[in-house]
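Bug #77: duplicate submission created two jobs. Keeping one. Sequence:
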Amino acid sequence: MLHVKTIEGQFDAKGLKFAIIATRFNDFIVDRLVGGAVDYLARHGCEREDMTIVRIPGAFEMPIVAQKLAKSGRYHGIIALGAVIRGATPHFDFVAGEATKGLAHISLDSGVPVGFGLLTTDSIEQAIERAGTKAGNKGVEAAAAVLETVRVMEQL
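Kept job's structure:
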């Protein structure tokens, strides 16, 4: 069997600093995502004083705030948490699409990993399921993805 070098991220958050962007819109969902992300990072060695939660109005504001945080040089990773729930107008498509594209651009342009924890659901029930019930907690998943990516990038 051939031996191939494999680079993997360790799930050790000790010594790392994270910014968590959390929207106020749909905060009854987002607060569960934030709780999951904070708990995950703490369980993996991140000190609570090394986490900063930044509350913003909604998902559309995520990219500009993520950009400012990334440019600050103070954070190893950024976790973007929010919930956009489809309504009767096309507003959902514009907000969800632009927030998603913006966050991806920030990560690529800055080199700072941005965890995508923006729920885009068709109903409140689906959002609740993804905020800690049947479908897990997407805040935890976004935090885990950022932590692993930070540790992988340290090795590249």
